[in-house]
Amino acid sequence: MTDIEFRPTPAVAHAVTARALLLGERIDTVGLERADLVSTSPLAFHVGQAGFAVLYRFGVAVLFGLSPLEEDEIVTKIGARVAGASRGDDETLVIETMHDGEEKALPNGRLAVKDLSEARLLVIADALAKSVALARDERRVNAVFDTIEPFAAELASKGRPPWRRKAMLELIGQTLLVRHRVSGRVAVEDKPDVLWDRPDLERLYARLEDEYELEARGRTLNAKIDVLGETARALTDLIDADRSVRLEWIIIVLIAMEFGLSLFQILVEQHPRAQHAASTAAPVSAPDSHAK
User: Fold this and answer.
1) 3-class secondary structure, 96
2) Residue range 234-259: average pLDDT?
3) pLDDT digits (tens, 9 = 90+) for 84-122
4) Among 28, 67, 93, 146, whose CB has the most other CB atoms within 10 angstroms?
5) Beta bridge partners of 47
6) What is the pLDDT of residue 5?
7) What DSSP string runs through 160-186?
8) Which has the closest alpha carbon to 23: 96, 70, 72, 95?
9) How many CB atoms lie within 10 A of CB 120?
10) Residue 34 in 3-state DSSP?
């Protein structure tokens, strides 16, 4: 009989809560340099006794081990540097340190790591920030798709574009704005810079990337953005075609009016001539009849 060795479950040494907060469109981190900086891109620094904050220029702040009051204090301090302030769905993750365990996502939704070093926190913050930013961009893209659907339904049912030119232009503007905001802002496929110095954390980042489905969500979002770009071009082509048809009809009407006006002028000019010819022909025939 084979002996089975039972290993004791690693004890949980410490647990920290990480919160990724969507604060707005962009955070201006220029001029926030301080003596206790851990990283400049993204901007990361210690807060209080055991807190840690990471600020991303695409509008997300990731805070580790802070109380609600400390979180509010950080958000208030950087509030003036947030452009397009808006709040969305935040991401929360509880991190447990297991010195003898494997770094992985636990069944209870928590994350097990070997320690809470600054490098590991930067890797975790990168995944959380990208997940929150993707959620914001996904909401925007889906909202534009919901706006496009009535136009597409009307085009499919009637076989012609809607005549609401202003609404179509507004839709094109929304499409281009979302595409501009989303494209190139959050580089989901790029790995955090800390991995250049700590390649041993590649596995941790890969697991977080799989856990939050960053790569798949990024591909889906890019595909939707491409569809929005094609939709904007299609709507622009419809507007141009509609304008061309209208111009053609206007030209046809103007030509018809000019032809009618010319015909009317010809008739008006011929009418006095006919009257004059009739009036001049009448006196000539009178003497002949008188002579007879």
Assistant:
1) strand
2) 82
3) 877 777 899 999 988 777 788 888 888 999 889 999 999
4) 93
5) 51
6) 37
7) S--S-HHHHHHHHHHHHHHHHHHTTTS
8) 72
9) 21
10) coil
Q: Give me the mean pLDDT over the 29-33 stretch.
A: 79
**Residue 134: CB atoms within 10 Å:** 20
Per cent of the chain over pLDDT 90 is: 24
- Please give the residue that has the higher pLDDT: either 204 or 264: 204
* 116 touches 99 (CB < 8 A): no
> How many CB atoms sit inside 10 A of residue 281's CB?
9
List the structure tokens of 184. 């190139």
What pTM, to 2 d.p., does this model score?
0.74
Residue type, 154: E
Distance between CA atoms of 76 and 161, rounded to whole angstroms?
Answer: 48
| Helix residue ranges, H only, the chain | 68-78, 118-158, 165-182, 194-197, 202-211, 214-291
**Tokens in use for 270?**
């011929």
Q: Are strands 111-113 and 91-97 parallel, antiparallel or unpaired?
A: parallel
Q: Looking at residue 103, what is its pLDDT?
A: 83
Residue 213 tokens read as 């489905």
**CA nearest to 21, candidates 91, 69, 70:** 91
Contact 20/129 with Cβ under 8 angstroms? yes
Q: Which of 80, 34, 39 is nearest to 62 (CA)?
A: 39
135 pLDDT more than 60 = yes
Tokens 């201006």 sit on residue: 28
Query: What are the CA-CA distances from residue 255 to residues 219, 251, 259, 261 (Å)?
Result: 54, 6, 6, 10
Q: What is the pLDDT of residue 11?
A: 46
Nearest-10 crossing angle of helices 202-211, 118-158 = 30
Q: Which amino acid is at 266?
A: I
- For the segment 42-58, what is each residue's pLDDT rounded down to a tens digit? 999 998 888 999 999 98
CA separation for the pair 94, 110 (Å, rounded): 5
